[in-house]
Amino acid sequence: MGTAVETAAVNWLKLNGFPEAERLPLAGAADKGDVRLCRHPTIIAECKRAQRGVQLVPWMRELADEVDNAEALMGILIAKQKGVGDKRVGRWVCGMGHDAFMVLYGRWLSVSQWFDVESVSPMKVNSQYVPMLDSAGEVPFARVEPIRQHPCSTQVGTVFLGPLKQFTMMIVNAGYGGEV
User: CA 34 to CA 26: how far, in whole Å?
Assistant: First the structure.
């Protein structure tokens, strides 16, 4: 099951700004993520099938460990929810920790012109969350698609959630990856 999610994510990423995207081999306790978006700088992703909702705290902890193991600049969580198929990968939920978000924000100073950050507090994001996040059309940088800010436990910190498409556009526009 995880292989299918990772493969769909890699295929989508290759077409959306990350031509170097590739699946990574399992490495046990020293795991370096499921997918590498780009090599220089290293950006990784942890991919999950979220049939019963996005488990922010454990998955973000796992991502943080993998970012350290990979000596990566940043990592993102990619979660495929029930009812959002492989043809709509850009709508899958993407999570990013505060530090990674600030790196992108610092490189793309006008980022506030194309999204709003809204504060919400659920620890588990159910499968109904995605339609609320991805209500915008295909116009890049529209302000109608909010990224959600989740204050998690002190072990995880603040997590920003939104559609994968929006986070990948932000990463590419900050100068990482390739062109969209």
Answer: 8
